[in-house]
Amino acid sequence: MLRFLALRIGRALLTIALVVTFAFVVLRLSGDPALLIMGPEAPPEVIAAFRKAWGLDDPIWMQYFDYFGAIAQGELGRSMRDGRPAVELVVERIPATLALTLPALLIKIGIGIPAGIYAALHRGSMIDRAVMLAAVAGFTVPSFVLALLLVLVFAVQLGWLPSGGQDSWRHAILPIFTLGVGGAAVLARFTRSAMLEILGQHYIRTASAKGVPWRAVVTNHALPNAAIPTVTIVGFMVGSLIAGAVVVESVFSWPGVGRLLVVAVANRDLAVVQCILLLVALTMVTSNLIVDFLYGFLDPRLRTRTGSA
Amino acid sequence: MTISRRSVLAGGSALAFAPRANAQSSEPIKPRPALRIAVAEIPPTLEPARELSNVGTRVTYSMFDTLIRRDFLGAPDGGGAGLKPHLAVSWTRNGPDELVLKLRDDVLFHNGDRLTAEDVIYTFMSPRMFGEKPLMPDARSYFATLASVDSPAPLTVRFRTKVPDVLLEQRLASWCSWIISKRAYEERGFDGFSREPVGTGPYKYRSHQRDQKIVLDAFDQYWMGRPNAESVEFRQVPELASRVAALQAGDVDMITNIPPDQVSVLKKSPGIDVRNVVLANVHVLTFDERGPQMGDKRVRQALALAIDRKLLVDTLWDGSAVVPNGHNYPEYGQMFLEGRSLRYDPDEAGRLLRAAGYRGEEIVYRTMPNYYTNALRAAQVLVEMWKAVGINARLQVVENFSQMRAEGAQIGNNSNSTRLPDPIGALWISWGPGSEFQKSGAFRSVEAFNAAGRALEAETDPAKRKALFKAMLDAWEDEAPGTVLYQPAEFYALKRNVAWRPYTFYFMDLRNDNLAFD
Question: Is A83 touching B (CB cutoff 8 A)?
C-alpha cells in the first residue's frame, strides 16, 4: 500500500512539474506580455522598460529557473497588470467559482446518477428513451448556447432572473443550472451504460437465478460494480471544480477563476496563469489520487493486483 | 490635532461652500438615477496616467479633470478640437516655450482638499511621470518636451518646455494631464493611489472589484455642479451577446464595443438607441521594408494603390466608417491639407509592379482576427484586391503583435491614434524616430520624412508648419511604409432616456453637459 501511495504521489508531482513547464514555455514563446499589456502604440522605450522591470529581457532558461526557484520558496510572482500577488488574485476568486461549481456538482450527481440507473433498469421503456433524449440534448448543446438561451428566456423575455453579474444568490441560478445540466447529462449516459453492462453479466443472472430479490441484486451486486466508471467521471468533475466554468463564467460575467484565467492568458500575465494552472493541476491530481484509492475500495481485486505487482 | 496649511484651506473651502449647501437643502433634492454601463473590460487600476487604453480612459475621464478642456462637443461629430477653461480659468503664452495658467479657486478634490498649484506641480513633476525613471514611462512620453512646472504666485502655474511646443495647451487638455491630489498620492503611494485614486472630477471612487465592476459615486461638491447621476457602475461583461442581453433585459443602461453587424439588430429593439462616432484613429496596414519583396517602394506603393477603401467602408462598415484624406484630418484645423485623398488606381498599381520587376512572389499578410474590428474580413477582401492587380498575397492569421512583428514580416495591421489635433500628435508620433517602425527598421527610408518632421516640431509659424506637414506627408506616402485604410466607427447602444454623446476618443464624458436623463 505504501508503494502504491508513493507511486501515485510521485506521478502527481511529475504531472504538476510538466504542466507548469509546458505553460511556461508556451506562454513565453507565443507572445510578448509587454506588447500585450502596454499595447501596440506604446513607445519602444516603454515596452523595453516594462520588459526590464519584469525580467522579460533575461534569457528564457534563466526566467525558467528563476521561476522554479521562486516556487520552491513559495513565491508565485505578481500580476503584471496591477502588481498584486498572483496567489492573492487567484485565491480571492476561488469562492466565487466554488459557489457555482459545487452546487452544479450536486445537481450533476443528484440528477445524473439516479436518472442513469433508472433508465438502465427500465431499458427500452418510454422513460428510458425520454431520459436518454434529454441526456443527449444536454450533452450535445454547448454550454455557451445553453447559457444564452437561458438568458434570453429567463432574463430578457420573462424578466425573472438577472442576465449576469454576482450581486445576489439570484445571479447564481442560471450559471449553476447551465453547468449542472450538461454534467448531469454526461453522468446519466455513463451510469446507464455501466449499469447495462453489469446487468448483462453472468453473476447477475446467477444471483437472480438463486432467488436473490431483484432490489438486492441491484443494490449489492450491480451498483458497486457499475460505480467504477461513474466514480471516474465524478473524479474528473471534482478535479475541474476550480477551472471548469470558464465559458459559463464568461457568459454570465461571473468573476471566478475561469474568467481570471481567460484574461490572464490574453494578456500573457504569466504569474497569474501559472498560479491558476498550478492550482488546477493540484486539484486534478488530488482528485485522481482519491479516485485511485476509491477504485481499491470499490474493487478489492485492484488492491490485490497492485500489491502483487 | 495637527493644523496644516491644507486643513486650513480645506476648512476654508468648506465654509465657502456652506451657503451653497444650505441653499441647496432648502430646495427639494431631485432623485437621480444610477447609470449602469456594461463594458467588455474594466481596467485593473484607476491611476489615470497608468491606464491609457480605451478601457481605462473610459472610466477615469469622469473622475479627473484637466487644466484646459478640449471641447469635443464643439463639433457635430464629437471631435471638436477647441479649448475651454476648466480647472484653469485662463492661460497666457509667454513665448513659444512658456505657458502660465491661472487656477480656479473653488475646486475641491474628492477627499475634501482644495486644489492648489502644488497639486498641479506634483501631477507633472513628481517621479510619477517625470524624471529619469518615472513610475509611468508611457505617461512621460506624452510630455516629453516638458522642462519644469512651478508656481510664480498663488493659484498660478507656469509650464516651461525644453523646446518650443505649440501644442502645450492641447497637451494640457488631453492624455496624462489629469490632475491628481498630492496629499492622497503621498499618503497612499503609487499602488494605493492606483487602487483608490483621488481627483476633482464629477464622480469619485466607491469600489473596484477586479474584472467585475467599478462603482463611482456622484461628487456633489463638484465645481461644475451636482452630477446628474447618483452613481455610475462600469460592469465587465466580456461576451457581446451577454452585453446585448443585459441591455435588452434592462439590467444596464448602456453597452459599449458593439460590432457593426449587430447594429441593425439592436436598432430594432424597443426603447434602445444606437449611437456611433468616427474615432480619432485610423486602421493602417504596415509594409515592412525588411521583408522579402518589400524593399522596393514601388511594390509598397502598388499595395496601397490597389485598395478600394470606399468599397471596404460601404460593405464592412455599412458606410459608418470614413475614408480620410490621407494621414490628414479636418480636426487639425488650419493644419489640415485640403484636396488630398487616398488614391485607388489598380492600373497604376499594375504598372508599378511591372516596373519593380515583381513576378508573383508570395507576400504574406499577417493579421489578428479580433483585435481590430472587422480586421479579418477586411483582410480577406484586401487579399482579393491585391490578387486582382497581380500580387500573390497570402493571409496568415496570428494571435498577437509579437507574432505579427516576428521575423519575415511583410504586411501587418496597426492603428494610429490622433492623440493631439496636429500632425505632431498623430503621424509623427506613430511613424517618427521614436516609433516602433523606425526603431525596428521596418521603416528605414526616413530621410525626407524625418527632416520635415523635426523641422515641424521646432517651427511655430503656422504657414511654415503647414508646408512642413505637407512635405512630411508627401515623404510618408512616397516611401509607403504603410497605408491608411479607414477611420473606424465605434458603436454604443443605450436606453432612449439617456442623453449622452460619444466622443471621437474613447473618453466617456459623464459631466452634466453631456449626460442627462429624460
Answer: yes
CB B355 within 8 A of CB B500: no
Q: Any CB–CB contact under 8 A between A82 and chain B?
A: yes
B272 & B406 share domain: no
In B, minimum Cα distance to A28 occurs at: B402
B325/B465 same-domain check: yes
Laid out side by side, the sheet with B363-367 consists of: B393-397, B363-367, B411-417, B281-287, B482-486
* Same domain as B305, residue B162: no
**Residue B53 sits in the same domain as residue B136:** no
Contact: A250, B238; criterion CB under 8 Å: yes
Q: Which of B165, B195, B225 is the last residue of a domain?
A: B195
Verify that B57 and B86 share a domain, yes or no: no
Question: Scanning every residue of chain B, which has its alpha carbon at the shortest distance from the alpha carbon of A90?
Answer: B210
Residue among A43, A263, A268 whose CB faces B434 most closely? A43
Give the closest-approach CA distance of B53 to chain A in angstroms: 8
- What does each of the 309 residues of chain A score in pLDDT, given as a tens digit? 677 778 877 887 788 788 878 878 887 777 777 777 777 767 777 788 788 878 888 888 888 888 778 877 778 888 887 788 899 999 999 999 999 999 999 999 999 999 999 999 998 899 889 988 988 888 888 889 999 999 999 999 999 999 988 888 999 999 999 999 988 998 999 999 999 999 988 988 898 899 888 889 988 888 888 888 888 888 888 878 877 788 899 899 898 999 898 888 877 788 898 889 888 888 888 888 888 878 777 777 766 655 443
Cβ contact, residue pair A43, B249, below 8 Å: no
From the number of C-beta atoms within 10 Å of its C-beta (0-12, 13-18, 19+), residue B190 rates as middle
Nearest to B137 among A46, A253, A263 (CB): A46
Number of separate domains in chain B: 4
Contacts of residue B344, Cβ cutoff 8 Å, sequence gap at least 6: B305, B306, B307, B308, B309, B310
Cβ within 8 Å of residue B491, ≥6 positions away: B258, B259, B260, B262, B263, B274, B275, B276, B320
Measured between CB atoms, which of A32, A83, A163 is closest to B246?
A: A163
B212 CB neighbours in chain A (<8 A) are 165-166, 253, 255
B37 contact residues in A (CB cutoff 8 A): none
Nearest to A101 by CA among A242, A288, A303, A271: A242
- Is residue B498 situated within a structural domain? no
